[in-house]
């Protein structure tokens, strides 16, 4: 903590991992002797840079850009870019640290990284977003490459931003390579990549339910957020027969007791991706309740999918979820539950899938996009979806293998942390002190 002042999210993420890994490391002292954890919490490299750009009024704006290259023991650095005014070094280090374990769990050869900027795309014109992305990439391009570091999207970085970033990379480097994932299908993207994180979180919940002989059909689901992850979690939940009753954005949530259907979801996609409006408009259109400034965790449900941002479920929310009968939490977002909320889930022994396992479908499909780019051959929608589904099943099995406790309870936090750790740690051991 003294070494990394003010990086509270990073401290939180490291503490959770270290706590669940310590008994395993005590049983396997070779990792301790090699100081693996001490090395893993130190990024291999951190880049921080100025991003100047000119807004539509001709005024110069200055933002800050970052890329954290956390760990490359098992493959090129891989992880998204986040554009949001709250972005700072601590948040990106937490995300990069989590990414190392998540990428290892996917079974694909990817190291961990993360980056972004405190730039806020909200309220900016397309031209302003383009000028910002071009300036950001002018600096970032010297640190990344298809075999070095492959960024993707995250909060505030979707198809539009990836397009502008890729265009600038190609222009400066004069090469058409898979340096970014999340590209559009016409120029090197993978089918199912936009859907992958949301679909994956639903597949993971389905696997957790199977351990109790159940499935998602007929279950009532609450979802937070209305961005990329939420949209496709809702789509897959509808397909699997669940009734989704909430979606949200940073200003509030809508409660639709009749449930979202394909037509209502199409409205949300148009609202959020094209018009970039607020979720409140959904309540006005479909005449349902809107709760300003609130999160959806007091709504009765069987399964909850936090898909917005970190620390969006606190201890009180977690208690409320359980009081209302919720017994499955599958995290589409990264670290959406506070440590106190996680304690509540583990004490209540519900089916709790932490983000680094449950939302790994996105980066897995990014890994599949990299493979297709290297081969210069696209796979069909069915093929990518089948591979994604199998990867989520494998991640679930890894969690069961390392997380099952004596009484049969599956502690997915422990399972994901140990399962993700072993491969990276073993690679670091044989690569010497680097
Ligand atoms: P988007 O930008 O597409 O959507 C984010 C959603 O969360 C929006 O509805 C946004 O509301 C809401 N939100 C953002 N910040 C806050 C906040 N501080 N408080 C309340 N609501 C907030 O991002 P994604 O869907 O891509 O990402 C969502 C989460 O999933 C993040 O935690 C991300 O790290 C994680 N994730 C994403 C992956 C991906 O493939 N995209 C992969 C793995 C994890 P508003 O519209 O008002 O901003």
From TrEMBL:
Entry annotation: catalytic residues: 114 (proton donor)
Binding site for substrate: 78, 99, 102, 153, 366
Record's keyword annotation contains Ribosomal protein: no
GO CC annotation terms, alphabetical: cytosol
InterPro entries for this protein: Aminoacid_DH-like_N_sf, Glu/Leu/Phe/Val/Trp_DH, Glu/Leu/Phe/Val/Trp_DH_C, Glu/Leu/Phe/Val/Trp_DH_dimer, Glu/Leu/Phe/Val_DH_AS, Glu_DH, Glu_Leu_Phe_Val_DH, NAD(P)-bd_dom_sf
Protein family membership: Belongs to the Glu/Leu/Phe/Val dehydrogenases family.
Name listed for the protein in its UniProt record: Glutamate dehydrogenase
Source organism phylogeny: Bacteria, Pseudomonadati, Bacteroidota, Bacteroidia, Marinilabiliales
